[in-house]
Design brief:
Layout (H helix, E strand, L loop, with lengths): L5 H11 L6 E2 H11 L4 H5 L9 H15 L3 E5 L2 E4 L1 H8 L7 H4 L3 H10 L16 H25 L3 H14 L6 H7 E6 L2 E6 L7 E7 L4 E2 L1 H13 L4 E6 L2 E2 L1 H7 L5 E5 L1 H10 L24
Parallel strand pairs: 6-8, 7-9, 8-10
Antiparallel strand pairs: 1-3, 2-3, 4-5, 5-6
């Protein structure tokens, strides 16, 4: 069963609260997980941002909306119970409770207008079933995906020499290569039997990594990767990184999974993602900080 959206959680959650017991958010979450027959994998699924479990976030927002509509009350921090208004709603036996339903309560409309959360009926558009964090996360993922596509197109249009410098910048940003000067001397100076360069694994140079970098549009097959592995063997090397702006054929990926030599394949998509993560060729346009209340601050001695 798929993880229900936060609006679909509202009615089942209110039914859990029907007995009047004061419950912590965790207790509601556990009971609802059983009701929706969610697997461990589904319970472990994270928001796009990776900062919180998806289902836990949806339960938390379902509670917020029900509380803001006056159907749940919070007698203590993180604990909730049903109100008389909530009991009345259940007595009417609604088929569902969603944002459209909650708009019949003036207290909810007042809160929503203040917070400017314009979502709407879950039956209108799919994105309206998402919590604010999910909407923000989805928007971020869309922007990031388009940025990665733009980066890759830009990289492919540059010269091989520029690509070598890009590889240097990225590896040094990731902590490899020692200094920029050391890395510059190592990368792009090879061309020896399928090896384009050598870079230190750490600043002390206790081990080295051999590099193969190919700027092209096509798919790198097993023969090319096998040639690189053979070159590593000739150097008695155990570690290598094969970077391409293209992609890797399935047989190439299967091949590196069966050999003893540790070879990491970085295709164009992953290269672009890593450039974003380590701020190579990108600039920050805007920053949004999502904050939560610091409950410890409000504890009186």
């Amino acid at each position: 069963m798929a993880i229900p959206d936060f609006q679909s959680i509202m009615l089942p959650l209110l039914r859990v609260a029907k007995d009047g017991v004061i419950r912590a958010t965790k207790e509601y979450r556990e009971k609802l997980a059983l009701e929706f027959c969610l697997s461990e994998e589904e319970l472990d699924a994270m928001l796009p941002s990776g900062v919180a479990p998806l289902f836990a976030n949806r339960v938390a927002w379902a509670i917020v909306y029900l509380q803001r509509a006056g159907l749940l009350a919070r007698p203590a921090r993180g604990k909730y119970h049903i109100t008389e208004a909530g009991r009345k709603v259940l007595s009417e036996k609604p088929e569902k409770i969603n944002i459209k339903y909650l708009k019949r309560f003036e207290v909810f409309n007042t809160w929503q207008n203040k917070s400017d959360l314009e979502t709407g009926d879950s039956s209108v558009e799919p994105q309206q079933t998402a919590t604010p964090e999910e909407i923000l996360g989805a928007a971020y993922s869309t922007i990031r995906s388009q940025l990665a596509t733009d980066i890759l197109e830009q990289v492919k249009s540059m010269t091989p020499k520029f690509f070598e410098r890009l590889v240097i910048d990225l590896l040094v940003a990731m902590g490899y290569g020692g200094t920029m000067q050391d890395a510059g001397k190592a990368i792009g100076k090879g061309g020896d039997e399928g090896i384009d360069g050598i870079i230190k694994e750490d600043r002390l140079g206790l081990d080295v990594i051999y590099i193969q970098a190919k700027r092209w549009d096509g798919s790198v097959g097993r023969p090319e990767v096998q040639k690189f592995v053979g070159a590593l063997s000739g150097k008695h090397a155990q570690k290598g990184v094969f970077i391409t702006t293209g992609s890797f054929a399935k047989n190439a990926e299967q091949y590196v999974a069966t050999i003893n030599t540790k070879v990491v394949l970085i295709d164009g998509k992953r290269l672009a993602e890593m450039m974003i993560d380590f701020d190579i060729g990108v600039a920050t346009r805007a920053t949004y900080r999502v904050k939560r209340i610091d409950n410890d601050y409000f504890v009186e001695d």
